[in-house]
Write a structure and sequence with these properties.
The structure holds 2 protein chains of 2 kinds. By secondary structure, chain A is mostly helical. Chain A has 19 helices and no strands.
Chain lengths: 407, 114
C-alpha cells in the first residue's frame, strides 16, 4: 500500500514540477511577442511544439527505463567519439546561450523590481544559482523552485479574467499562414518551436530517470507524467499568449521585457506588476538551475566522468567545475550588455536550428532494440518527430538571418 | 563473442571502487605474425581520444598532447563487460584521474566543496 501511495506522490510531484517548471525566458518572450503581434494565430505552433515535446520527453524516459542509459551517454557509446562531438558542440553552444538568456531575464526581473540596471545583477544572479548547485542537493532545490514556479499560474488567472473569445482562440489552434509580414510570422513560429523543444529538456530528463533508477514498469507512469505535466505547462504558455493578444494593440512590436511588465495589470490590478516580475524571475531562475546542470550532465556523461544531482562537488570535481564555467560564461554574455530579449530570441531560434543534431541520433537510438528491447519507437512517432524537427530547422535556417538583418 | 566497436569502445569505465573514471577511448590490439589479432588492453585518456579525431581539429593541442599519457588497462584487469565495463584498477592511481584529482583539490578549498 505504502509503495502505491509513494508512487502516486511521485507522479503528482512529477506533474507539479514539470508544470511549475515549464515557463522560462524563451516561452514567456515568444508567447508575448506572438500574442501581441499576431493575436491567437500562432497558438497552433505552440500546440504542435508541445505534442512533439511530450513525445520526446516520453522517449527520453523510456530510453532511461529500458536501457539505464542517459541520452548523451548512449550517444557517445552508440555512435562513437567523432560523431558525438557534433551534438555535443551544437547542443552545448546553444544551451550556453539559452542559459545566458535565462540569467538575463532574471536580471531584467530584478531591474523591474528595483530600478537598478540589469547588467549589475548578472554576477549576483550567477552566484545565487551557483551557490544553490554547490551547497544544496538538487533534488530539493528542483522541487522547491518548481513549486514557487506555480506563481506563473497568475497568467492563467489573468487569461480567464480577460474573457477571450473562445471561438477566436479555437481558430488559433488551426494551422494558418501569415496574415501579414510573413518573415516575422515564421520567425516567431520557429522561436516558439525552439522555446518549446529546447534540447536540454529531454537530455536532462533522461539523466533524472537514470538517477532515480527507472525500470521497465515505470514506462506507463512516465507516459502519464510527460503528457499531463507538459500539457499543463503548455497551458501556461498559451495563457501568456492569450493575455498578450488581449492587452497589447495588435501589431505592437514587443522589443524589451519592460514592455511586457504591465501585461497583467488589466486583469489583476495592482497585483499585476509584482506578479509578472515574480513569475519572470522565478521561472527563469529555475530554468537557469536546470540548464547549468543539464550542460554539465551532458559533458560528464559523454566523457565518462562522475555526475549526479546530489554529489558533493569534491566527489565530482570535473562535473562541478563544468557547471561553474557554464554559469560564468553565461553571466559574461549578460555583463557585456547583450539585450536579454534579443538574446532570448536568437537563442530560441538557434535551439530550433540545432534540433536535428540533437534529435536525429536520439531517434536512431530509440529504434535500436539493443537499447530499447521490445519497446522501440513506433512509425508514427518517428515520422511525427522527424517532421516537426525538420520543419523547425528549415524555418530557423531561413528566418534567423532575415530577422538578424532586419533587426 | 564480443564486437569490439559495439560492445567495448566508448563504454563507461568503472574502477575497483565503482568510480566512473572515463570511457573506453581506445582498444589496444596485438597483431603478431603468428595467430589471430588479440586484444591486449583498453585505453582511456585525452591522447587516445585525440588520435581518433581529424588532424586539423587536434593540431592546436599538439604540444599539450605530447605530454599527455593515456591510461592503459591490461586485459587481465577487465572484470566484466556489460552495460559498463568494470575493471580491477584503482582509478586514483592512474593518469586518467590526474585532472579530476587536481580539480578536486581546488574544489575542496572553496567553501561547500568538500
Amino acid at each position: 500500500m505504502s509503495s502505491v501511495v509513494k508512487k502516486l506522490l511521485h507522479v503528482a510531484l512529477g506533474v507539479v514540477t514539470s508544470f511549475g517548471g515549464f515557463l522560462e525566458a524563451g516561452s514567456i518572450a515568444t508567447s508575448v511577442q506572438a500574442g501581441a503581434e499576431y493575436g491567437y494565430s500562432l497558438l497552433w505552433v505552440l500546440l504542435l511544439g508541445t505534442i512533439c515535446l511530450v513525445v520526446l520527453i516520453e522517449m527520453s524516459g523510456r530510453l532511461a527505463a529500458m536501457s539505464h542509459h542517459t541520452i548523451a551517454g548512449a550517444m557517445r557509446e552508440r555512435f562513437g567519439l567523432r560523431f558525438f562531438l557534433f551534438p555535443l558542440l551544437g547542443v552545448g553552444v546553444v544551451s550556453v546561450l539559452t542559459l545566458a538568456a535565462e540569467v538575463g531575464a532574471v536580471c531584467m526581473a530584478l531591474q523591474l523590481a528595483t530600478g537598478i540596471g540589469f547588467q549589475w545583477w548578472a554576477v549576483p544572479v550567477m552566484l545565487a544559482v551557483w551557490l544553490l548547485l554547490w551547497w544544496g542537493t538538487f533534488g530539493m532545490i528542483e522541487d522547491g523552485v518548481s513549486i514557487l514556479g506555480l506563481v506563473t499560474v497568475a497568467f492563467v488567472v489573468a487569461a480567464v479574467k480577460l474573457h477571450p473569445g473562445v471561438a477566436d482562440v479555437a481558430r488559433g489552434l488551426v494551422p494558418s499562414a501569415a496574415p501579414y509580414d510573413g518573415s516575422r510570422y515564421w520567425f516567431l513560429a520557429v522561436s516558439i518551436l525552439g522555446a518549446t523543444l529546447t534540447p536540454y529538456l529531454f537530455y536532462f530528463y533522461s539523466s533524472g530517470a537514470v538517477e532515480d533508477r527507472w525500470e521497465a514498469d515505470d514506462v506507463p507512469a512516465n507516459r502519464f507524467v510527460a503528457t499531463i505535466g507538459m500539457g499543463f505547462g503548455a497551458t501556461l504558455a498559451a495563457a501568456v499568449l492569450i493575455v498578450a493578444a488581449v492587452v497589447f494593440t495588435r501589431g505592437a512590436r514587443v522589443e524589451s521585457f519592460d514592455q511586457m511588465a504591465p501585461m497583467l495589470t488589466d486583469a489583476l490590478g495592482p497585483w499585476g506588476f509584482p506578479l509578472f516580475v515574480a513569475a519572470l524571475g522565478i521561472a527563469c531562475f529555475g530554468a537557469a538551475l536546470e540548464i547549468s546542470l543539464a550542460l554539465a550532465y551532458m559533458i560528464a556523461q559523454g566523457f565518462g566522468w562522475n555526475w549526479g544531482k546530489d554529489v558533493r562537488p569534491r566527489d565530482a570535481a570535473r562535473f562541478s567545475v563544468t557547471y561553474t564555467l557554464a554559469l560564468v560564461l553565461a553571466a559574461c554574455l549578460v555583463i557585456v550588455g547583450l539585450d536579454p530579449l534579443r538574446l532570448t530570441n536568437v537563442a530560441m531560434a538557434l535551439n530550433a536550428a540545432c534540433l536535428p543534431l540533437a534529435v536525429v541520433p536520439f531517434l536512431v537510438l530509440m529504434n535500436d532494440p539493443e537499447y530499447l528491447g521490445d519497446r522501440t519507437n513506433g512509425r508514427v512517432s518517428n515520422a511525427f518527430v522527424l517532421g516537426v524537427v525538420t520543419l523547425a530547422c528549415v524555418l530557423a535556417v531561413v528566418s534567423l538571418p532575415l530577422d538578424l538583418l532586419g533587426g | 563473442m564480443l564486437d569490439l566497436v559495439r560492445d567495448v569502445l566508448d563504454k563507461q569505465l568503472l574502477d575497483s571502487h565503482a568510480r566512473r573514471f572515463g570511457k573506453v577511448d581506445g582498444v589496444v590490439i596485438d597483431v603478431s605474425a603468428d595467430g589471430p589479432p588479440r586484444v591486449v588492453a583498453l585505453e582511456a585518456g585525452a591522447a587516445t581520444r585525440m588520435a581518433r579525431l581529424p588532424r586539423w581539429l587536434t593540431r592546436p593541442f599538439a604540444r599539450w598532447l605530447a605530454r599527455a599519457t593515456s591510461t592503459r588497462i591490461p586485459r587481465s584487469a577487465v572484470l566484466a563487460v556489460a552495460r559498463e565495463i568494470r575493471v580491477s584498477v584503482d582509478a586514483r592511481r592512474t593518469p586518467a584521474w590526474r585532472v579530476e584529482a587536481w580539480l578536486a583539490r581546488l574544489v575542496a578549498r572553496i567553501p561547500g566543496g568538500g
